[in-house]
Structures are given as structure tokens and as C-alpha cells.
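pinned: reference chain
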Amino acid sequence: MSNDADKLFGLKEIAPEDSLIEYPSRFPIKVMAVSQDELVPTLVEIVRLHDPDFDHETVEIRPSAKGNYMGLTFSVWVTSREQLDNLYRALHAHEWVKVVL
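pinned: its C-alpha cells
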């Protein structure tokens, strides 16, 4: 699955037996993004493309001290490395998103 996007995001193939993540499991994804009125609903929509049962009410929201940025945590149900990688790519590709951890 190696391609240019993987190189850009630093993603590498990891054998299932070498993964530190057990699938399926609940996995927290942290996002730092520019504060916008529609930020949470927009990112929830992206998350739901990869975890259709994601509950938007579980999003943890932390505004920055000056209110210019928001820290968000999405606890998603992941079933594979591919699903998790695709979600990271989709979130990182959004123009308001600065960091995805």
C-alpha cells in the first residue's frame, strides 16, 4: 500500500503481528485545527465516512487560550490499519486541520 501519500504522512506498512494496536478496538485520534463555527460538524462528517456509527456527542473539545485553534479528540471504532490510515489521511487533508495524532 505504499504510495506518495504514505511518504508524505510518514506511514509505513506494519505487519499485523508488529502492530501495537489491537483490532477491532476503540482508538483516540487527536486533531488540532483552526477554530471555525462549522469545525466540529465538518470533521464529524469525515470521521463518519470511516466509522459510520461514530457518536458526535463523544467528541472532546478544547479551545486554545486565544481561541484561534481547537483541540479535538475523536474516539473511533477501528477494525483495521487500512481504515485508521485512511481516516488519518482524510482528516489531515482538510484545510482547517493543522495536526492529526
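why pinned: Residues 81-93 form the longest helix (13 residues). The helical segments are 4-9, 39-50, 81-93.
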